[in-house]
């Protein structure tokens, strides 16, 4: 499924609000080719990619050939900007927020994301598939947006006092993005409340994995927090598990709360560190051809594992959670996950711009399609709005402690598993 010209992305979002988003690794802009296509050729190139690859052969009940007639055969273009406008109009007919066009600057920014450094405010956004409102998938931990108090599921009503009604994610990004040190204002709706945020943009270094050893009533546990599935997430996860194994932990708590997703190969790579045998995920394209990813017998540990999830755990997080759950490798604790079961192929175009196209559905090992549904945890632990704000914003020192209700339940669950397995609960 993966070609040398594209990379598979599992972000819940259309874009990360920074100078970078979710795809790189092996993508090289063809804008440096010997010639650039004419504006009409570029529009036709985009039409053809969608025609060949889009996951739904009916193009969501759109006459795709008629679209080509309208935007290619019967229209002339004098410059690239006219072509870009038509491409966005053309893709909008699919009514798919995950299939989107990026101009050269947007695409360049997107490719940088997985390098682990960004400039911006640090939130990941998408477009609600029903209401078309811009929604925060999750703030990236320890970024300006996170520290300001932006939360998953917040609706973005205005950007610098400009209404976002009818605005797509590309337009939103162009307004939110800017130089480090400058400010942007967001008007947010959270349930029935309207909140105003003035956020200063910054250069942010992102390490997707944080880990620590925790002494708990269940014994000596390894705690690993995974913030996103970037290119270096697998390497950092391996380091975390290897380090904690040397400390003789009795079990692990893997925290995927607020993790919006990322790269497909990263989720598979990390799943293989926990699962020794079994299926991890299957993807099904338009033609019905399934491609399966399986464990490779190289798990780094077989100790008890509990995974923390919530409504901000999306896409690649759901692949990993689903694989661990269906293989009976882990118990899921928390709340229902986001619910994005689609895969995008991100590829460069001839003039240096880029295109993300939904090319497949993915399914958990048991064949579950979680799109729009999410994954229900084995042990549900809801947090009130006040608990969430206190825990994630005002009292961060309580996160992943016994004062964190979801973490405390995870400790309780894993304690029972350790006892049942006969694993020592404390260091001697």
Description:
By secondary structure, the chain is an alpha+beta fold. The chain has 3 domains: 7-107, 2-Layer Sandwich (Transcription Regulator spoIIAA); 124-205, PDZ domain (Pdz3 Domain); 209-341 and 362-419, 2-enoyl-CoA Hydratase, Chain A, domain 1 (Alpha-Beta Complex), CATH 3.90.226.10. 29% of the residues lie in helices and 27% in strands. The protein has 11 helices and 20 strands. The protein has helices at residues 39-53, 64-73, 80-92, 104-112, 144-148, 169-176, 233-246, 264-274, 316-326, 385-394, 405-421, and strands at 7-9, 15-18, 100-102, 117-127, 134-139, 155-159, 162-163, 183-190, 193-200, 202-205, 209-216, 219-226, 251-255, 279-285, 290-294, 305-309, 331-334, 342-348, 354-363, 379-380. Strands 1, 3, 14, 15, 18 and 19 form a 6-stranded antiparallel sheet that branches. A 6-stranded mixed sheet has the order 11-12-13-16-17-20, sandwiched between helices. Strands 2, 4, 5 and 10 form a 4-stranded antiparallel sheet that branches. Strand 12 (219-226), helix 7 (233-246) and strand 13 (251-255) form a beta-alpha-beta unit. Helix 8 (264-274) runs parallel beside helix 9 (316-326). The longest helix has 17 residues, at 405-421. The protein is globular, with a radius of gyration of 22 Å. The relative contact order is 0.16. Residues 1-5, 12-34 and 424-428 have low confidence and may be disordered.
């Amino acid at each position: 499924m993966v070609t040398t010209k594209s990379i598979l992305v599992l972000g819940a979002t259309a874009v990360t609000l920074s100078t970078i988003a979710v795809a790189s690794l092996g993508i090289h802009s063809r804008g440096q080719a010997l010639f650039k296509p004419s504006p009409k050729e570029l529009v036709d190139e985009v039409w053809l990619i969608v025609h060949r690859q889009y996951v739904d052969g009916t193009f969501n009940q759109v006459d795709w050939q008629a679209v080509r007639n309208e935007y290619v055969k019967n229209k002339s273009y004098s410059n690239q900007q006219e072509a870009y406008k038509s491409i966005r109009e053309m893709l909008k007919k699919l009514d798919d927020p995950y299939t989107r066009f990026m101009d050269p600057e947007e695409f360049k920014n997107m490719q940088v994301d997985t390098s682990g450094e960004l400039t911006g405010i640090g939130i990941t956004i998408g477009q609600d598939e029903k209401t078309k409102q811009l929604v925060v998938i999750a703030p990236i931990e320890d970024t300006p947006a996170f520290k300001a108090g932006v939360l998953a599921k917040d609706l973005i009503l205005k950007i610098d006092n400009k209404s976002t009604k009818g605005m797509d994610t590309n337009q939103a990004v162009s307004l939110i993005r800017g130089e480090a040190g400058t400010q942007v204002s967001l008007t947010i709706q959270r349930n029935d409340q309207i909140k105003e945020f003035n956020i200063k943009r910054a250069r942010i270094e992102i390490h997707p994995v944080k880990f620590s050893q925790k002494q708990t009533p269940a014994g000596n546990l390894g705690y690993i927090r995974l913030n996103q599935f970037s290119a270096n997430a697998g390497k950092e996860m391996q380091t975390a598990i290897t380090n904690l194994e040397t400390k003789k932990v009795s079990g692990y708590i893997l925290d995927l709360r607020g993790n919006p997703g990322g790269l497909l190969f990263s989720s598979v790579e990390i799943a293989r560190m926990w699962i020794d045998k079994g299926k991890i995920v299957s993807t099904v394209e338009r033609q019905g051809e399934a491609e399966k990813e399986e464990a490779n017998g190289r798990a780094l540990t077989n100790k008890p594992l509990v995974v923390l999830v919530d409504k901000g755990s999306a896409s690649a997080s759901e692949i990993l959670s689903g694989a661990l759950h269906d293989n009976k490798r882990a118990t899921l604790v928390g709340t229902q996950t986001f619910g994005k079961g689609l895969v995008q192929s991100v590829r460069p175009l001839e003039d240096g711009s880029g295109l993300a196209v939904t090319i497949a559905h993915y399914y958990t090992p048991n064949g579950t399609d979680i799109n729009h549904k999410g994954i229900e945890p084995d042990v549900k632990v809801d947090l009130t709005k006040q608990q969430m704000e206190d825990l994630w914003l005002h009292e961060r020192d309580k996160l992943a402690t016994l004062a964190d209700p979801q973490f405390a339940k995870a400790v309780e669950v894993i304690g029972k598993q350790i006892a049942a397995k006969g694993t020592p609960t404390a260091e001697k």
